[in-house]
Design goal:
Distance between the termini: 93 Å
Number of strands: 12
Number of helices: 6
Structural class: alpha+beta
Helix content: 25-40%
Strand order of the largest sheet: 2-1-6-5-4-3
Oligomer: single chain
Number of domains: 2
CATH architecture of the largest domain: Roll
Strand content: 35-45%
CATH topology of the largest domain: Nuclear Transport Factor 2, Chain: A
């Protein structure tokens, strides 16, 4: 029984190796055919190597999603790079490694080199890049699902200034909004005004602009002189980073009054837009805009 089981495993592994060898041969031929079409500069024919929903990213400059966009990408690339500047340039694609992820999906790592001769017969400077292809077998044909072109190991890459994403900043912005809600519910003008920059301004719907921290505190004093028997609720709709230290926050703002069994009953909603600026690791409001809500009516004059 043991020998029979071992024989089954051995036959299965042999079959897998045969299949992998066959797939590798097919994929290498596919790369060679891609190279041939690439050097004809037939963008329409080259796009046929891709799945309908494929995407291509070339370094940090070019990106295309979908077969038609990929066709346009190559056509424009050849027009701008090869046809006008170096019509004799040709590309070669050498497979460095290949592995199957599933029976019908494989990864190909390859080296792309372009070179050739100019119109006078002089050798053009070679350009190298590394590519990763994700290929998908559909109806017994290997098609490219994704291409990522990366710099060669001999290239240098100067990293740009890091930019914090909206999601990275979200916990800090959420904490800021929560603290602002608490300040608002204190009905203390000085506490609320502390959230603003010295040069901040606010506009509430069709009211006049209020500018400067001292004027803002006076505005908040007048605002809170009317009883506000509700708890403010601010919902972050969107966080957009403009620079590392300037963020736009879109909010839905509502209030809620105590109801039965300590449940809060929501009031009408409005929309607000904040521009936040970070100074010495502290966020402050540089501009606050309260816009009419979707149920409000604007009467033009």
């Amino acid at each position: 029984m043991k020998n029979h089981f071992t024989l089954i495993i051995g036959v299965s592994l042999l079959a897998m190796n045969i299949n992998l060898a066959q797939d590798s041969t097919e994929l290498c031929k596919r790369v060679q055919e891609y190279q041939r079409i690439f050097n004809t500069r037939d963008a329409a024919a080259l796009s046929e190597f891709f799945t309908e929903d494929a995407d291509v990213v070339v370094g940090n400059l070019l990106e295309a999603k979908g077969r038609q966009a990929i066709e346009n990408l190559w056509r424009n690339y050849w027009r701008s790079k090869f046809n006008r500047q170096e019509p004799g340039r040709r590309g070669t694609f050498t497979v460095n490694s290949l592995r199957t992820i599933t029976d019908d999906v494989a990864l190909i790592n390859l080296l792309s080199v372009t070179g050739g001769q100019d119109s006078l017969g002089a050798e053009l400077r070679t350009r190298k890049a590394r590519g990763t292809w994700v290929v998908h077998r559909l109806k017994d044909e290997w098609l490219i699902a994704s291409i990522f072109m990366l710099p060669a190991e001999t290239d240098s890459v100067v990293l740009g200034t890091s930019v914090e994403t909206a999601e990275t900043l979200r916990p800090h912005i959420c904490a800021f909004v929560t603290a602002y809600e608490d300040a608002y519910d204190s009905h203390d003008p000085s506490v609320v005004t502390a959230f603003f920059r010295n040069d901040a301004d606010i506009i509430v719907r069709n009211k006049p602009l209020v500018h400067g921290k001292q004027t803002l505190q006076e505005w908040w004093s007048s605002y809170f002189s009317t009883p506000r028997n509700f708890k403010v609720i601010m919902i972050i709709d969107k966080i957009r980073t403009i620079t590392n230290d300037v963020v736009q926050v879109n909010l839905t703002v509502t209030g809620a009054i105590p109801g039965t069994e300590n449940k809060l009953q929501p009031l009408r909603q409005t929309n607000a837009n904040w521009i936040l600026v970070r100074d010495a690791d502290r966020w402050h409001i540089a501009a606050l805009r309260v816009l009419p809500g979707k149920d409000d009516v604007i009467i033009r004059r």
